[in-house]
Structure formats: C-alpha cells, structure tokens
Amino acid sequence: MKTIVLYLIGIIIIIFSLYFVAKYYENGDNNAALMYLVVYSIPLTIISLINCSLLKFSENIRNKNITKITLAILFPVISIVLILTNDNSLNLFGTIGIIAFGITNLFWYLNFKVLNKNNFSYPKPLA
Q: Between the chain's N and C termini, which has fewer beta carbons within 10 Å?
C-alpha cells in the first residue's frame, strides 16, 4: 500500500469516527459533535499520521515479526488503556482510537499480507 493511501485512509476514518463517536457521547446533539470535530480533529489527525508512519516503518523491518506486531498494535493498546480511565475526554480519545486505528491497521495488515503472498517467488533450481 502506498504511503499516501494509508495516510488518507487513516485521516478519513479518524474524522468520521470522531464525528459519530462525539454524536453518540452527546446523545445526538449535532452542534456538540461538530464542536468536537473542530477541537479534536487536528490532534487526532497528527496521531493518525504517526500511526500510519509506524505501520510503514514496520514494513521495512526484515525478519522481526515481533517488532512488526508490536508496532501494529501499539496505538490500539494505548486506546484501550484510555478507554479504561475515568476521564470523559480520554474515554472519547480511546473510543475513537480503537475504532479508527483498528480499522486502519486492519486495512494495512490485509494489504500487507496480500502483497507478500502475491510477491512470493519460489527459489530457482540449482541445475
């Protein structure tokens, strides 16, 4: 997957999940959801870009599956920890993060596995 495509998927999913989760947290109030969208869109976009950069960085790591898995689940695990806190704004960040980072990482993982499967080549015979 190209880097720009991964960034766009991450940003679009984070913006949509921010709006819908904020609307859910505010019991359907559209004005409050749009206010959340204005206030939290820039920090969440930056965090999404960092997540996508870590995913692209983990593609370049050779022969270290543990490192790839750790980098891929870093932000979803942080989001789960934020959900478990008692602060409402951190719960909002955690809920948005687990949805957006989970879907983005799932797209990346499926594309990464498909690309690796298609690029597999058998070794050439010696004779």
A: C
Q: Are 54 and 74 in contact (CB under 8 A)?
A: yes
More confident site: 91 or 60: 91
d(CA 105, CA 30): 29
pTM of the predicted protein model? 0.77
Q: Which of these, 6, 1, 31, lies nearest to 118 by C-alpha position?
A: 1
Rounded-to-integer distance, Cα 106 and Cα 119, Å: 20
How far is 88 from 91, CA to CA, in rounded Å? 5
Sequence spans of domains, the chain:
3-110
Residue found under tokens 């947290």:
25
Residue 30 parent element (H or E):
helix 30-59
User: Looking at the predicted structure, is the pLDDT value of residue 92 above 60?
Assistant: yes
